[in-house]
Amino acid sequence: MDYAFFLGCMIPLRSPQLEAAARKDCEILGIGLKEMHGASCCPDPVAIQSLGIETWLTIGARNLCIAEKMGLNVMTICSGCFETLKTVHVMLKRDKRYFEMVNEILGKIGYEFRGTSKVYHLTEILSDEKMLEKIKDSVKVPLEGITLASHPGCHLIRPSKILEFDDPERPEVMDKILQTLGAEVKQYAEKVTCCGYCARLNEDIGDNLCEMKFNDLVKNQIDALITVCPACTTQYDLHGRKIARKSDKPMEIPVIHLPEIMALAFGINPKSENMDIMKRAIKPRKLLEKLKIEI
Amino acid sequence: MEKTQEIIKSTDLISDLRYQISNQIGAKSLLACIQCGVCSSSCTVSEYIDLQPHRVVACLLLGLKDKILNSNAIWYCSLCHRCTERCPKNVDYSFILALLRNMAVKEGHIPPEYEITINSLLEHGFTVPYAGMLKKSIDRNREKFNLPEIVTPNLEEIEFIVKETGLKKILEDAKKGKKKEVKT
Fold this sequence. Notes:
- The complex is a heterodimer.
- In chain A, β7, α13 and β8 (255-257) form a beta-alpha-beta unit.
- The radius of gyration of chain A is 19 Å and the shape is globular.
- In chain A, the strands form two sheets. Chain A has a four-stranded parallel sheet with strand order 2-1-3-4, sandwiched between helices. Chain A has a four-stranded parallel sheet with strand order 6-5-7-8, with helices on both faces.
- The two termini of chain A are 34 Å apart.
- The mean pLDDT of chain A is 97.
- Helices cover 51% and strands 10% of the residues of chain A.
- Chain A has helices at 10-14, 16-29, 47-51, 53-70, 79-94, 96-107, 122-126, 129-138, 154-157, 160-163, 173-180, 203-219, 230-246, 258-265, 285-290; strands spanning 2-6, 32-35, 74-76, 119-121, 147-151, 184-185, 224-227, 255-257.
- Chain A is built from 15 helices and eight strands.
- By secondary structure, chain A is α/β, with parallel strands linked by helices.
- Chain B is mostly helical.
- Chain B folds into two domains: 12-106, Orthogonal Bundle (Fumarate Reductase Iron-sulfur Protein, Chain B, domain 2), CATH 1.10.1060.10; 112-178, no CATH class.
- Chain B is built from eleven helices and no strands.
- In chain B, α8 (112-124) crosses α10.
- The two termini of chain B are 23 Å apart.
- The model of chain B has no long low-confidence stretch (mean pLDDT 95).
- The chains are: A alpha/beta, B mainly alpha.
- At the A-B interface, α1, α2, α3, α4 and α6 of A face α6, α7, α8, α9 and α10 of B.
């Protein structure tokens, strides 16, 4: 199956190693990715939606038009892009007045939004029963003896009446995928706690939320925290280092994007043209040691 | 702490404020609020804000615009959407909050952080700057991972949309001195 691959901003421009790992996984699993030439920022569900919802909807719809012209559904590996594009798609189809308003503007620059391309996060595509079988068959380095915790984050699962993905209070899709890779997945109290990245205007919020999360992860003896969003990944990686530095207990828990841990299980060299597992503040040295992977 | 009673004059109420918001996308549900407070008890940032979500909605229903604009509640929200998820009456606080931010922005309350983001979007098509030396270093980094070249968007199209949707004018007016403080 082919998808129009929506890259966004943070991953392709700041963390291309995450894109590389996702592309490799998709190649192994037979998921075809086609480039969306001329796509812009999704746009940002925090700043741009806050400044002007019409602007946010119309730029989002313009991006979806590119996929519609390609005749493909959209796939993204960023929860922010997922939230924006899926909300734009669902809400414009539900609201005729806004649908027409958006199209009146887009019409003047040669686009027409019809709503024919559906929006998926890679996680959803991976969680399909047949795909899970394929993942299982592709594992070369089972994550045996590794304890992981998943962080679905807010914009993958809520609000469920729009995103229609997983259980919004007890999410389990990510865990199923991680178990298929051979890992033990622990449930923990702060699983659905927000990372605080989007509460940009008060730093204390992010600091405190991250501290709560890491305290819980340490208590549960987690080897790595698995994320599906570049914002959550960055937030936990940077805050995690800060928390570890001021604590006298060992608090260093690496934060790894789902496509990266999958590539690792698929036997991909962790420091190669397909990924760079060391490109983060908290290095996953112990995890690699446990898996007997040398780099 | 001594509590002083606040007296609000009926002439200060904006009677159609609720409709100004509920008439917009995703916000019709506003009128269904029963003030149960589930949103506030689910709120990620509840301990940081000076007006809890259900109180924001109450102010909105009553027509107390200034009380909302002078609160940090609309800016500290982390957009976790737990309020919207758990509301027994299906009130979409997430959309309502975005529309309240839009209302504040129209009056000149524009967070500098958000201004940087929209300027980058207009200049580069992305929220991460992608030009000059930065572009060179990003491209080199992408090459290392064998990733395809980025085909940037037509910036005239992005600018056209920002203009046509009225945001360009709001930002320009704010620059001309109508900019107001953002309560944080």
